[in-house]
Amino acid sequence: MNDCIFCKIIVGDIPSNILYQDELLVAFPDLNPTAKMHILVVPKNHQANVSILAAENPKTLQRLVSVSQNLANQFANGDYRLIFNTGSTVGQSVFHVHAHVVGGETLPE
Ligand code: DGP
């Protein structure tokens, strides 16, 4: 997608601190962290949201959860909150599916 910021990060047109990548996923710190650990895990294939990902690429979603756990083990104490904002009214601003992996401190309920 020409105007997708995460597609540009994935191909290296926008520099980012890549923390992890494999053939399906890439992970990098959120530009505006809300906790000590705030990492985005992003499928390399452009799809708009997690519902479409689950329907069309369930193995990528399964991998994403596994990678999120590994990142939480590496960058926090293994605990993490996994957030998929889905739709503009609940805060999705980038319409390329991504998981927020948040933790590294005690979070409010
Ligand atoms: P959401 O609001 O759920 O669509 O989350 C989008 C997140 O993406 C938001 O927390 C900020 C982050 N973000 C937007 N642009 C960039 C960028 O260029 N680099 C990085 N690292 N994060 C970005």
Give your account of this protein's structure.
The chain is of the alpha+beta class and 109 residues long. It has one domain (5-103): HIT-like (HIT family, subunit A), CATH 3.30.428. 29% of the residues lie in helices and 20% in strands. Strands 1-2-3-5-4 form a five-stranded antiparallel beta sheet, with helices on one face. Strand 1 and strand 2 form a beta hairpin. Helix 2 crosses helix 3 (58-75). 2'-deoxyguanosine-5'-monophosphate binds next to strand 2.
What is the count of distinct domains? 1
Query: For this structure, what is the CATH homologous superfamily?
Result: HIT-like
CATH class: Alpha Beta
Task: Compute the CA-based radius of gyration.
Answer: 13 Å
**Low-confidence regions:** none
Bulk shape? globular
Beta strand %: 15-25%
Spatial order of the strands forming the largest sheet: 1-2-3-5-4
Bound ligands, named by name, code or SMILES: 2'-deoxyguanosine-5'-monophosphate
Architecture in CATH? 2-Layer Sandwich
Q: Give the SSE string.
A: HEEEHHEE
What is the CATH topology?
Answer: HIT family, subunit A
SS-derived structural category: alpha+beta
Largest sheet: 5 strands, antiparallel
Strands, total number: 5
What is the CA–CA distance across the termini? Answer: 36 Å
Helix % is 25-40%
Mean pLDDT: 97
Q: Helix count, per DSSP?
A: 3
- In oligomeric terms, what are we looking at? single chain
